[in-house]
């Protein structure tokens, strides 16, 4: 029986900085698979020679979204792509939060401004302030929060993004984020592990694209309510089957209830170093799928 060949898809920045990447490759090899990291936009990558391509750290895709989505579609034609190309496309634009809300999932209330919209400070008010960010974004790029009374600054930020032809998200600032964001990781459709991390937007009114993306990471045991909210969000994803991997980022609302901040289904940091069983669990899920008939 031939050994399944798996491409672990990354980027130049992922090769340099993705701590999960070597753990995934080593775990797959230990599980009996042939695995190698491959940069997604490599001009010489022969995707058809792999039995599967697992997206891991394509962290530059936001800057070249159309190219990346075309790559996902083409790669899915050549081999099995996880997560699927349709999910990659759906998750690449945070308008999906509106879809989750319509499905009854508890999410951070989110409004969207589209290019051509006239933005006034009155549209960007909130009792606790607001967060302004692009609808296509990763790692809090071009994102900032604004305190009450700074609506004019928030409007300038939104107008800057709109003038670049980008859709804009506006969310109320959630004060209980000071208690930490929760990230729940699922592998093969089942809960794997979770972490808690410190809040990211600590300085109001500042766009800092060089900030540490995951400060203060620590292992975390989620509550039953957090697990239910995360599971409800994943059940609402338009996927042809259970996702190979998923990260659900949660915060607490003012009543202390968990709400979805984001779903990370393309290239999330899975924080595998925080769980000794995490890499093996991931490799087992890939092995099971690679062994299934196409």
Write the layout of secondary structure elements.
Blueprint: E1 5-10, H1 12-17, H2 20-30, E2 34-39, E3 52-57, H3 65-78, E4 80-82, H4 85-91, H5 96-102, E5 111-113, E6 130-134, E7 144-146, H6 151-163, E8 168-172, E9 181-187, E10 190-197, E11 218-219, H7 224-235, E12 245-252, E13 258-264, H8 278-291
Parallel strand pairs: 1-2, 1-3, 3-4
Antiparallel strand pairs: 5-8, 6-7, 6-8, 9-10, 9-12, 10-11, 12-13
What's the total count of β strands? 13
- Helix-and-strand structural type: alpha+beta
Uncertain residue ranges: none
- In percent, how much strand structure appears in the residues? 15-25%
CA-CA gap between termini: 16 Å
Amount of helix = 25-40%
Name the strands of the widest sheet in spatial order.
Answer: 11-10-9-12-13
Counted by DSSP, the helix tally is 8
Order of helices and strands: EHHEEHEHHEEEHEEEEHEEH
Anisotropy-based shape:
globular
Mean pLDDT: 94
User: Rounded to an integer, what's the Rg over CA atoms?
Assistant: 19 Å
Largest sheet composition: 5 strands, antiparallel
